[in-house]
Structures are given as C-alpha cells and as structure tokens.
Amino acid sequence: MLVEGLKNYSRTKAFMLPLALLYFAPLHSEASPWVEANDPFLRSSILALSDASVIDGPTSLYPLRWSLLGELTAGNLSTETSYVKYMRQSSKLNRGSRRFAVYGGNEALTSLGFGEVDNDKWGAEASYAYMDNSYSFRLNTVYSDDGQNSELSWRDSYLSLNMGRLLVDIGYLPRWWGQGWQHNLVLQTEGQDLDINASVIGESQQFGVWDLTFLTSKLELGDYGYRSSTRFTNKLTSNFEYGLSYHYWFEGQHRNESNQDQFTIDARLSLPTLNETYHSIYAEWANGNDLHQEAYLVGWTGHVSWEGYSARLVLEHTSTVSDSEENSAGYSASVYAQFPNDHKLKIAAVRSEDWLDEDEIQVNVAYTLPAIEGLFHLETEIISKSNDNSDTLFWAKYEFRF
C-alpha cells in the first residue's frame, strides 16, 4: 500500500511539498543519524582513524551508524578527528537539514565507485530532514533524467526508529557494504530500491564491537522482485576487521527461474604506521550459484596528513571466474585529497577486461569547492575502449544546505 501510494502521488505536489517545508520548517533540524554512502572523503577520514586504532567499531557498512565510531579521542590525526567530530556534532545539532541541489552534464556518468550515487544526465532535488532522540526522517524528491527516461523518485528518503542498540529504518537509501572503493563484491545500491533495514550493535571483551544487519529490499531493476540480505561485521582487534554477508534473491520474473543466493567474506588488516602513513590491506571473496561464479578483490590503501592537508591512495584488483568461462578482471588506482579551505579532489583510473578480450579504461576526475553559499561539484570522465571508441563526459552539481 505504501509503494502504491507513493506512485499515485501527484508529481507536482510531490516536488512542491519539500519546497514548502524548506520555507516553513524551523532552523533546528538535521540530515541523518548515520554516515551515508555518498561521501568518500568523510569515509577516508574515518578509515584513517580506524587504522590508527582511534575507532573501535567496524567501518565497512554504509550507512554507518555514528554510535559505531566511539569516543573519537584525539591522537596524531587531529585534522581527521576534528572533521569527523564536526560532522557528527552537526547531526546532533540538526545542521544542514534542508537541501536543494541541481546537476547535469552532456551524458550520465558511468563511474560506480564509492559515493557515486547521483549519476543521472540531469536532475533536481529538494529535501527536508529532522532528527529526534528516538526517530528521524528525510523527505527527498528527485526529478531526474538518465538520458533515456525521466522520472520522479524518492531516492534518499527514509524513516528510522532508534531504540538504543537497535535501529530500524525504511526508505530509499544508497548502500555500500564491503572494503572496496572502486569495486564492490558485497553490496552496492544507488537508492532505487525500497528497503526495510534493522541493525543491532553490541560489544564484548572477547570479540570487540560488532554489528548485525538484516535487510529486505523490493528491487526496482533486475530479474527478481526481492532480495533478503544479512551482514555481520566485527572489529575483532584494534587492527583487524571482518564481515560475513549472505544474499538471497526470490520471486523471479519468469516461472522457471530458480532463486539465487550469494555468500561473501571480506576483511581488512591495519598495518604498522610507516613514515606517518596509516595504511591497510583488505580483501573480498564472493560465491554464488548463478553460473557457479566466484569473485575476489584485493586492495591496499594508505593515508597521509600534514598541516591540514590529507591524501589517500587506493590500489585494487578484482577478478571473476565462472564455469561458463565468461571471466573478467579489473584494476584501479584512485587518490582522494582534502585541503584546508574545504576543497576536495578525487582522481580515479579503472581498467576493465572481459572474456571477449575487450579492454576499457576509465579516468574520472572530480573537484568540489565551496561557492555561492553552497558547494560546487565538477566532474569529468574519459572512457577509452579497445575498439578505439572513446567518450568524454562533463558533469556539474550545485548543492545548497541550510
């Protein structure tokens, strides 16, 4: 009934409602009770603090509950500690809950790395959010065009109930499970599916801090109507974190289509600090009954910080092997740099190889800077294929919060 009601709601009224809330809402309001899967720079700071043993909880489950980050005591990474504390305090004080954004380019972006959630050719969004001690919500309306179809959606909308160690939410939130940055074998969504999610956190002297999440999704795209997912993450020691995930797809579109499942394991090991570099190695492994596929991902990432500047380098390799011999592989290198004046730079290069020996190289450069009381995000992609075809994409976004 909820889904049908949303679909039947007038497009004009649906888009105007958050705009009206922006005008009449009080200033004391907020964005979300967690770190969302749309900011690789905030994730970079969190991971640096985890590698420095400042954070005791697991950090491979986005949206990531603020309560998993712990006290955040200051150490050598004072810039990162202050930044994460500021973002968490902004949530507690209800800052920046009203938002308007407009974006567009010559084509829809194709990059699928962490934080790439607004990849449409063009679009506009308006939202209003509120958080209380026991509940929070965000109403976000998006009118977008992916280059083929235009639609009105509720992407990034949610309602959550906080019951201490238990948090329950329903909505259309992008999600990222796993250790990877440019590749993902565990779970990656863009906020198109209607999710019902329950998360329980706990801690013990023997096993450290853990999180158990149950997720059921009504799928917008694909061959199945629903997916049920379970994930257990645990930071067992100060330098070792692992995750176990299981997915089950059911209600296929065709009667003779059997249900599918997948099991994944991922882990990250923080290495000893080397010349003020906080770094770690990580891996993911996935196995599913669809064509008896197996896939793995290995990576290394390092973070350096000096005088208010910080930079992260990420190197990854992934490979997929199946009984049908439709194998594929990928390699990537990416850099995330943050500057004291709130400017941010991302450079990512990804090479993909498939079973037809067709290679593709994708270079993505993104720059974010404050301007006109908001944030400008400029991005370009250069895609080169082995058949000598190439494409260049330009994309820009302006976001205003108050």
Describe the overall structure.
This protein is mainly beta. Helices cover 12% and strands 53% of the residues. The strands form three sheets. The protein has an 18-stranded antiparallel β-barrel. Strands 2-10-11 form a three-stranded antiparallel beta sheet, with no helix packed on it. Helix 3 (40-51) crosses helix 4. The longest helix has 15 residues, at 78-92.
Give short descriptive properties of this protein.
single chain, 402 residues, mainly beta, 18-stranded antiparallel beta barrel, three-stranded antiparallel β-sheet, 24 strands, disordered N terminus
Tell me the number of helical segments per DSSP (H or I, 4 or more residues long): 4
The shape is globular
Rg = 21 Å
Largest sheet: 18 strands, antiparallel, barrel
What is the CA–CA distance across the termini? 33 Å
Q: How many beta-strand segments?
A: 24
What is the average per-residue confidence, as pLDDT, rounded to a whole number?
87
SSE topology string: HHEHEEHEEEEEEEEEEEEEEEEEEEEE
Strand content: over 45%
